[in-house]
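To the wet lab folks,

You asked to see what we're planning to order before we commit. Fair enough. Below is the target structure as tokens, and below that is the sequence we designed to fit it. If anything looks off to you, flag it before the synthesis order goes out.
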């Protein structure tokens, strides 16, 4: 009788494997970072082979730590940094080029050119997304146009595309030796190539971008009883385990946070920040700069949609203070440094390092610190960096309210930054609603494990999963309305200063 469900969680800066029991409690975890490659300003890449090596290492370590024997793990789910694009050789598994990461802005010219006919929202009615460097479609086109021999290989059917979920599943189920070439609806909805109504690749958009359909993976449910493949017995799991769960990281967190009812929302604080609001089984078009995206699809049940606000730089700003400025030596130190001051001293830090995502979608924006005086010290900069995350979240929440008409009662939060007490209190203050952290804050991995476990009957239904969810801590807002609005007004003024920096 299987005791566990496993998740491979491939993120922007690291890969982890987590093993959970039936109550959704963590049995073991292993995690390793991989290299961030910056060939030119605005370009961000990863080495796909390094990511697969890290995956194998963390899987072996997590299985060993859990003391899992063959037959103990019921199923494996995969979750991933979305939009990060790989094109590789179906026969050898060798990538034709490094993975182009979601933050990469090299496709700006491609996006601008596409927008000449029909504007930034040219494809939005079909795919729910604006034309932006963020999504996979333009990245695939860049590889086809710029890497020698890839277009010919794609026409022949040798070069295949995947976001990282597809890459991991392909290798986990055998790689060149019959690996499954699939992606789930949540990841497919981030390519700018999938029609939200049909849940299939859109031939018209493929034609406009010049992407051969045969290089794309098969689109499947997020939790699929028709198992895509099993892990080889001589692979990192050391057992033949069904691989049948797949969710983009933010959708996985929504599932892990058990936001299964219309109007339930969660915010994940990671490298970037991503707020998702469950809008039910019909897509809600956004007029306020949000993305209409797939939340999840369980087996044959109707797909569930979400509105999403994506913020490019949140936790990455703390890393930047650490790595580029040397202001702190460990990310965790940022809170103590920020606590050395009473407030931000009148400064705002808008981290538009790779432009602004929701609700602006301005690739011409760049980061600013405004309001500097001689009074400002390291503590104020650290504090302003943390506050930036809370302000950006407020902007997204305001846009969600506009689009959906739903008043948020509380915000469920997860991800690495939710252990920062100062940030969480300020978040509650600036939103004016309670902020709630669950017992298991690694909800991304949990969501992927849930998707896989549901597919094989390890969990029976969504109610089983709801029963697992428990509150760890709640932050109530303490700030008065006048202060809240005055601070927020200053933030909005600061954001305007970032516009039109790149000519």
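Sequence we intend to order:
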């Amino acid at each position: 009788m299987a005791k566990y469900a496993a998740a491979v969680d491939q993120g922007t800066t690291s890969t982890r494997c987590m093993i959970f029991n039936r109550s959704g409690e963590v049995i073991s975890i292993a995690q390793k970072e991989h290299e961030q490659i910056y060939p030119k300003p605005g370009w961000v890449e990863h080495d796909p082979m390094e990511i697969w090596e890290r995956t194998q290492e963390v899987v072996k370590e997590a299985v060993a730590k859990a003391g899992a024997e063959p037959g103990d793990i019921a199923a494996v789910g995969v979750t991933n940094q979305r939009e990060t694009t790989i094109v590789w050789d179906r026969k050898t598994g060798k990538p034709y080029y490094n993975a182009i990461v979601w933050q990469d802005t090299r496709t700006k010219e491609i996006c601008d050119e596409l927008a000449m006919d029909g504007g930034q929202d040219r494809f939005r009615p079909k795919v729910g997304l604006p034309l932006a460097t963020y999504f996979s479609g333009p990245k695939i086109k860049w590889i086809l146009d710029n890497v020698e021999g890839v277009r010919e290989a794609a026409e022949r059917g040798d070069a295949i595309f995947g976001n990282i979920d597809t890459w991991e599943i392909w290798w986990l189920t055998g790689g060149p030796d019959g690996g499954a070439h699939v992606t789930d609806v949540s990841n497919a909805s981030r390519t700018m190539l999938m029609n939200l109504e049909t849940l299939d690749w859109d031939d018209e958009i493929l034609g406009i971008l010049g992407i051969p359909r045969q290089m794309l993976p098969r689109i499947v449910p997020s939790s699929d009883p028709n198992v895509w493949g099993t892990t080889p017995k001589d692979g990192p799991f050391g057992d033949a385990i069904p691989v049948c769960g797949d969710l983009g990281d933010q959708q996985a967190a929504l599932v892990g946070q058990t936001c299964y009812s219309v109007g339930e929302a969660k915010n994940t604080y990671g490298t970037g920040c991503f707020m998702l609001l469950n809008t039910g089984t019909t897509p809600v078009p956004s007029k306020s700069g949000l993305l209409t995206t797939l939340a999840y699809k369980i087996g044959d049940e109707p797909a569930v949609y979400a509105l999403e606000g994506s913020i490019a730089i949140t936790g990455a700003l703390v890393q930047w203070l650490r790595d580029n400025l040397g202001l702190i030596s460990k990310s965790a130190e940022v809170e103590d440094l920020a606590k050395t001051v009473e407030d931000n001293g009148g400064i705002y830090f808008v981290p538009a390092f790779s432009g602004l995502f929701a609700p602006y979608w301005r690739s011409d924006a760049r980061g600013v610190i405004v309001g500097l005086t001689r009074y400002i010290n390291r503590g104020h900069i650290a504090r302003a960096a943390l506050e930036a995350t809370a302000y950006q979240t407020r902007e997204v929440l305001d846009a969600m309210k506009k689009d959906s008409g739903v008043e948020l009662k509380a915000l469920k939060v997860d991800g690495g930054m939710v252990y920062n007490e100062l940030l969480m209190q300020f978040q509650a203050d600036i939103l004016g609603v309670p902020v709630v952290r669950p017992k298991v804050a690694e909800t991304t991995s949990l969501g992927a494990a849930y998707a896989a476990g549901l597919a094989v009957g390890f969990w029976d239904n969504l109610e089983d999963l709801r029963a697992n969810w428990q509150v760890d801590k709640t932050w109530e807002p303490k700030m008065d309305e006048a202060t809240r609005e005055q601070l927020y007004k200053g933030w909005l003024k600061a954001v305007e200063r970032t516009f039109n920096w790149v000519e």
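Structural context that might help your review: The chain has 16 helices and 23 strands. The first strand starts at residue 4 and ends at 10.

Thanks,
Computational group
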